[in-house]
């Protein structure tokens, strides 16, 4: 972070000031050098900001949601405007990070890997749940409105409370479990290529919560498992290595009142999923599985 | 989380401009469904109160069909019913897991088809009323 440079200089300076009385020559020289360096850094900083100001037409206009229940004066939600200098390939997350580093260090949002794997930075950008790190600014209309995910409690600025989402994910037992073990002690549990292909898309979930936030039904029914959790269950229920006992067990969780049957096929989740998982298709398939499992005509 | 706030229109129909095809299909299906339920009850109520004599029945029907507003409402009823039927077929396909990638196209198709059928039926419905 470039803002760090002048900050450390300042602390050094204040330390130096406290001991200016009767300083040895060497120290004076050192201080002189530091002062010079500081000037040079400031010079460079100034040049850079001037350069950026010159390229004013190449700035992106961001409207970012701000809210902080702990600070008086921020308790009323508002939108802050940032004009971020654009460079080719800039994502919404890059722009937010620039705004935080250069304009307002109190701007709060989650991010980690910046390559669509950690699933931390799902936000509501221009009226749609998107993963900020894989959303190009050039694809968006200005001003770019960045808001926290809808239908979730806002903790601060763009950070939402994910607790409920994680609870729902855990409710479907999102881990491999089986009593269908191969005979030999050292045998591997093999999966056919076809079966792997079947569950492939469902394994891509990164727990970002975009689907859950886009789902109207999940918003109105807190007990509904939600698309992400059902997709997770699909990943294991359809995995042949888990065996029929386990599948039965998983379907019992899924076919409850607030399980798969709450889905009303709005396709919102499928549309917003940053990993292109066909969530609705998976939920529909589990519905059919549940019916087959209960009817047993064959 | 006790300290939060009401996000108001962000979370309901304030966002209708950003709704996608599947969402609109859902909203229209709900709406047409409720209209049909409402019509069904009105239908039963009106006809059952007119069943006293054959003449009373004819009078009621004639009185209703004389009014242009009823003719227009009938066109509306047809539109609602046709859309509900076509989207119902679409949902049937969705439930069977057929063509889920084309769900938005099938929604547009049902809209267009509804429009075509309704426009084609207007002459028959309003004939003699105006």
Automatic annotation (TrEMBL), chain A:
Location of the Succinate dehydogenase/fumarate reductase N-terminal domain: 61-166
Entry-linked Gene3D superfamilies: 3.10.20.30, Alpha-helical ferredoxin
Segments of this protein annotated with the region Disordered: 1-56
UniProt domain 4Fe-4S ferredoxin-type: residue ranges: 203-277
GO biological process: respiratory electron transport chain; tricarboxylic acid cycle
Compositionally biased intervals (Basic and acidic residues): 33-56
Acidic residues bias locations: 9-20
Annotated GO MF terms: 2 iron, 2 sulfur cluster binding; 4 iron, 4 sulfur cluster binding; electron transfer activity; metal ion binding; oxidoreductase activity
Cofactor requirement: [2Fe-2S] cluster; [3Fe-4S] cluster; [4Fe-4S] cluster
Family that this chain belongs to: Belongs to the succinate dehydrogenase/fumarate reductase iron-sulfur protein family.
Protein name as it appears in the record: Succinate dehydrogenase
UniProt source species: Haloprofundus marisrubri
From TrEMBL, chain B:
GO molecular function, one term: electron transfer activity
Compartments, record wording: Membrane
Location, primary (coarse class): membrane
Keyword Metal-binding (UniProt): yes
SUPFAM superfamilies, alphabetized: Fumarate reductase respiratory complex transmembrane subunits (SSF81343)
Listed transmembrane segments: 31-51, 72-94, 106-129
UniProt entry keywords in alphabetical sequence: Heme, Iron, Membrane, Metal-binding, Transmembrane, Transmembrane helix
InterPro entries in UniProt: SdhC_prok (IPR039023), SQR/QFR_C/D (IPR034804), Succ_DH_cytb556 (IPR014314), SuccDH_FuR_B_TM-su (IPR000701)
GO cellular component: membrane
GO biological process, alphabetically ordered: tricarboxylic acid cycle
One Pfam family cited in the UniProt record for this chain: Sdh_cyt
Gene3D superfamilies with a match to the protein in the record: Fumarate reductase/succinate dehydrogenase, transmembrane subunit
Matches recorded under PANTHER family: SUCCINATE DEHYDROGENASE 2 MEMBRANE SUBUNIT SDHC (PTHR41910), SUCCINATE DEHYDROGENASE HYDROPHOBIC MEMBRANE ANCHOR SUBUNIT (PTHR41910:SF1)
Protein name (database record): Succinate dehydrogenase
Organism name: Haloprofundus marisrubri
Taxonomic classification: Archaea, Methanobacteriati, Methanobacteriota, Stenosarchaea group, Halobacteria
């Amino acid at each position: 972070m470039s803002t760090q440079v002048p900050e450390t200089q300042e602390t050094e300076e204040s330390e130096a000031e406290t001991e200016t009385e009767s300083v040895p020559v060497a120290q004076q020289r050192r201080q002189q050098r530091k002062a010079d360096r500081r000037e040079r850094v400031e010079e460079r900083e100034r040049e850079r900001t001037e350069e950026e100001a010159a390229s004013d037409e190449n700035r992106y206009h961001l409207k970012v949601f701000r809210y902080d229940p702990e600070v008086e004066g921020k308790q009323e939600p508002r939108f802050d405007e940032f004009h971020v200098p654009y460079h080719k390939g800039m994502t919404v997350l890059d722009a937010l990070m620039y705004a935080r580093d250069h304009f307002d260090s109190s701007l709060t949002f989650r991010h980690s890997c910046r390559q669509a794997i950690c699933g931390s930075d799902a936000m509501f950008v221009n009226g749609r749940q998107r993963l900020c790190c894989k959303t190009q600014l050039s694809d968006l209309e200005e001003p770019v409105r960045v808001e926290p995910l809808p239908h979730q409690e806002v903790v601060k600025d763009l950070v939402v409370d994910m607790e409920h989402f994680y609870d729902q994910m855990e409710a479907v037992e999102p881990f491999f479990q089986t009593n269908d073990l191969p005979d030999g002690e050292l045998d591997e549990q093999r999966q056919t290529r076809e079966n792997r292909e079947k569950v492939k898309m469902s394994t891509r979930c990164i727990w970002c919560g975009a689907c859950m936030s886009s789902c109207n039904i999940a918003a109105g029914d807190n007990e509904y498992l939600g698309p992400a959790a059902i997709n997770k269950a699909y990943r294991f229920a359809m995995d042949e290595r888990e065996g029929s006992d386990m599948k039965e067990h998983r379907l019992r969780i899924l076919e409850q009142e607030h399980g798969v049957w709450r889905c009303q096929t709005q396709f919102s989740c499928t549309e917003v999923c940053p990993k292109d998982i066909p969530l609705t298709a998976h939920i529909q398939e589990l519905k059919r599985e549940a019916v087959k499992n209960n009817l047993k005509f064959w | 989380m006790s300290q939060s706030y009401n996000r108001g229109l962000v979370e309901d129909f304030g966002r209708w401009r950003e709704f996608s095809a599947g969402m609109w299909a859902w909203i229209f299906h709900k709406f047409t469904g409720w209209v049909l339920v409402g019509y069904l009850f009105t239908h039963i109520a009106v006809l059952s109160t007119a069943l006293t004599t054959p003449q009373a029945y004819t009078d009621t029907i004639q009185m209703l069909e004389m009014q242009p507003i009823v003719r227009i409402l009938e066109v509306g009823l047809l539109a609602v019913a046709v859309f509900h039927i076509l989207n119902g077929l679409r949902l049937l396909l969705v439930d069977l897991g057929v063509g889920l990638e084309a769900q938005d196209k099938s929604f547009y198709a049902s809209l267009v088809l509804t429009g075509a059928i309704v426009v084609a039926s207007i002459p028959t419905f309003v004939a003699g009323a105006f």
